[in-house]
Write a sequence for this structure.
């Protein structure tokens, strides 16, 4: 039996967001009335960088946005570097 | 202070935010949780229904000031709960008076305070609704537990629903992290997901700190017992952020 591979944390965040959106008040454009001050930007500590190595997959240098739009992904050879902003 | 989940740091936030607000204004802290933890955070324990919030809810002729504990901390008065509040609430619910009971009970006291902080239990039941009905603003919290984020979103839906019913006009002023574990990844993921919901995520994150459970034993919120600690500074910052969000002070 092959153990289930742990899903990438970014995926977990997206999964949770989906769960949350299912419960968020129906009038998404007029959500629960919130105070006028906009939520301040997340502190810089919320930024994160992650390096992943994908053995055996050798590709040329590449750069792009991750499918969920949550990170910039730069690939060089087997290296994949993800620059993510969690506090978006 | 509200959430649909227990054990997420509500009472600790309520106690510390109340103590922080009391540095610049007169504050009344009200425990609307039969578990009576808010009073205990300050070392106040009611003996029964008669010397606690239940007395005011049950009998409109009881003098509110006589039940309030004065100066439990600098600038801070407290209206404690007692486990008998559960039975009082059940009885009031049967007669239809529960929803507006907390609002009615607090009305004679409002002129004496700049801020009233209400702590509720971790559910969206009828007693919590009675507290929400008495409030202008609602603050909720989350931790690294994804269930706490769901709880925050459920609270938002609950407020929306009861605005529709005209049970409340309270505004959700913020969703704050009450136990920020900077070493763990889960808190970041939970915060990231909450940010995507459009709810008003506050920037203050209260760090996970061993000082917090110790302060409960010491019956002194950290804002008072360890005022120079990072965790106390976070509660003070949270209180400031809430004041700005409620429009009580300019940004
Ligand atoms: N920032 C924190 N760091 C460490 N422990 C905390 C923190 N906030 C709360 N706690 C602890 O978590 C537990 C639940 O907190 P509490 O405020 O009673 O939650 P609730 O009122 O939501 O049930 C308590 O034991 C409390 O001491
Ligand atoms: Mg509590």
């Amino acid at each position: 039996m092959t153990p289930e591979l742990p899903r990438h944390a970014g995926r977990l965040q997206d999964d949770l967001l989906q769960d949350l959106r299912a419960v968020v008040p129906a009038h998404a454009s007029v959500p629960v009335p919130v105070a006028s001050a906009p939520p301040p930007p997340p502190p810089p500590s919320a930024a994160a960088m992650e390096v992943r190595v994908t053995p055996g997959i050798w590709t040329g240098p590449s750069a792009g946005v991750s499918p969920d739009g949550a990170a910039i992904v730069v690939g060089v050879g087997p290296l994949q570097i993800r620059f993510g902003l969690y506090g978006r | 202070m509200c959430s649909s989940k227990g054990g997420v740091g509500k009472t600790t936030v309520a106690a510390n935010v109340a103590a922080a607000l009391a540095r610049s204004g007169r504050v009344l802290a009200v425990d609307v949780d039969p578990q009576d933890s808010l009073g205990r955070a300050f070392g106040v324990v009611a003996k029964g229904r008669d010397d606690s919030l239940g007395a005011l809810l049950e009998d409109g002729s009881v003098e509110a000031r006589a039940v309030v504990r004065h100066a439990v901390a600098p600038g801070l008065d407290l209206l404690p709960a007692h486990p008998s509040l559960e039975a009082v609430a059940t009885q009031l619910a049967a007669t239809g008076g529960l929803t507006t009971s907390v609002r009615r009970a607090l009305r004679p006291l409002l002129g004496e305070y700049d801020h009233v902080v209400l702590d509720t239990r971790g559910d969206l039941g009828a007693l919590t609704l009675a507290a929400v009905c008495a409030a202008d603003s609602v603050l909720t919290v989350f931790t690294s537990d994804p269930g706490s984020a769901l709880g925050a979103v459920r609270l938002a839906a609950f407020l929306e629903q009861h605005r529709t019913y005209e049970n409340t006009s309270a505004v959700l002023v913020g969703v704050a992290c009450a136990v920020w574990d900077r070493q763990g990844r889960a808190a970041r993921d939970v915060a990231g997901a909450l940010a995507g919901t459009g709810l008003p995520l506050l920037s203050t994150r209260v760090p996970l700190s061993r000082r917090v459970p110790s302060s409960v034993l010491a019956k002194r919120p950290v804002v008072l017992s360890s005022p120079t600690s990072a965790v106390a500074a976070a509660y003070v910052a949270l209180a400031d952020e809430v004041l700005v969000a409620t429009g009580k002070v300019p940004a």
